[in-house]
Design goal:
heterodimer; A: 126 residues; 5-stranded parallel β-sheet; globular; B: 277 residues; Chemotaxis Receptor Methyltransferase Cher, domain 1; 3-stranded antiparallel β-sheet; 10 strands; binds S-adenosylmethionine
Chain lengths: 126, 277
Amino acid sequence: MKTCLVVDDSGVVRKVARRMLEDLSFSVTEAANGLEALAACDIALPDVILLDWNMPVVDGLGFLTQLRSLPAGLVPLVIFCSAENDLDHIATAIAAGANEYIMKPFDFDLLREKLEEVGALEKAVT
Amino acid sequence: MISAVDFESVSRFLKLHSGLILGIDKQYLLESRLLPLLRKFELADFARMAAILREQPSGVIAEAVLEAMTTNESLFFRDKSPFEHFTKVMLPSLNATRRPGDPLRIWCAAASTGQEPYSIAMTLLENPHLTGGRRVEIVGTDLSGEVLERARSGRYTQFEVQRGMPVQLLLKYFEKDGDNWRVKPNLRSMVDYRKLNLLHNFSHLGAFDIVFCRNVLIYFDATTKRDILSRVARITRPDGYLLLGGAETVLGISDAFRSVPSQTGYYVPNVPAMAGV
Ligand SMILES: C[S@@+](CC[C@H](N)C(=O)[O-])C[C@H]1O[C@@H](n2cnc3c(N)ncnc32)[C@H](O)[C@@H]1O
């Protein structure tokens, strides 16, 4: 089973994302900020990380930068999932090593497509 | 409420002028799409609208009815596989057989709001080696002037630009436009949009190397499909290609095109069908 770490300071968003990801057969863990996420990655690197930007303590970008500098930190596929929706934010996220970027709000189909896009899910047969 | 007689009359008009086949269970669809037009044109009821469609089948109201009844849903890189055939099979083979410098021509026969032609254009820009520097012309046509207007403007909502499109392409080929996104001018200028009804003659478009005719034939009956496919074949080059939607096929409908053994998803002209292009 593939694993996904959902990093978001909103419990509601984490819950919604968890439900969608579980429907896609992911095993889901949660973190409420970048620091908690780094601790989670210390225990086990997930296959995919769904990452919010604005969070207390360590934000999404700070987390991503630190993750990518870890020994195996390039392994997890990182999908930013943020309400920040301008070109600068997106370009910064990609430059810092994000694999994809979802502009909130999102729905199940969009999440599934982006997971397919980064190769975390088999493409639906068309 | 539309009466059975008027429904029948409007359905006949639609089939004749846009090809659309409306099942008799589609009264609700028809009403919900056409109700705004009753108000817009200040018509008393559907009986009045049906009468006008009979009297002035090519008037302003008739045109608005045809457009309102089209289904325009589209996605960037819809179904993915057509774009894989495009880069893995079609462009390499055409590029190999054409003289250097000869242009390629691509037709999007149901361009709708532009996602398909822009996906083709982005694919070309992302893979310059596949066309060897030759000029590529993309013609996008649709029955509906309204969707073509949107296609030309290149404006999409945040939601639309995310469906089907990798974020790297968004960064490269789009700019922010208020809350929306807009295709950059260099990409916009690659597509030539024209209004065209597939029921009418289209030989004036000239010959094409690749035809995307996706998710439009599904709305038509077998006779209309056959007629359109045979006329598409006449303007498809003998070594060219046809792409249909995921639920569409030429098999059992037209022998103007045939599938390629052990390949699914695209078709090639049955060569004798091609005349003098
Ligand atoms: C569902 S969209 C397909 C868009 C795109 N090809 C795709 O696959 O995503 C169908 C389009 O066909 C157009 N259409 C319907 N009847 C037509 C006709 N008789 N001639 C030309 N276009 C037509 C509609 O206006 C609509 O934009």
